[in-house]
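Question:
Now give any protein.
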Amino acid sequence: MDEIGWPHAWCAVRKDLGCLAGLARRSGFRTDLLAEHLGISTRTLRREFKNALGLCLKDWLVQVRLIEVRIRLRGDESIGNIALSVGFSHPKELSREFTKGYGLTPSEFREKERSRISRLE
């Protein structure tokens, strides 16, 4: 345990957002499963995340999910399937968050990426 009573594994994860993002991905981007992987309660995870990073866990998870979506939009998987598999309840929810974050709909982003890649080839 460290000075505030946390297991060392949690302290290491807290300092490494890449590791935490990987855990989030393996947890299906679900806060409850992420907390379970870390061996802490969801409430404690949310509180400690906010204290350590000054960022709401929910907002960070949305950003991590959107990064995953951007990667997957480069393939041929349907937007609806991507939305559900990264934890959005509906493709419209994904579209709303994606547009808010990137200024493009997922379809527009996909088309833009395909155009960019075809110009490079």
In short: Confidence is low (pLDDT under 50) at residues 1-8.
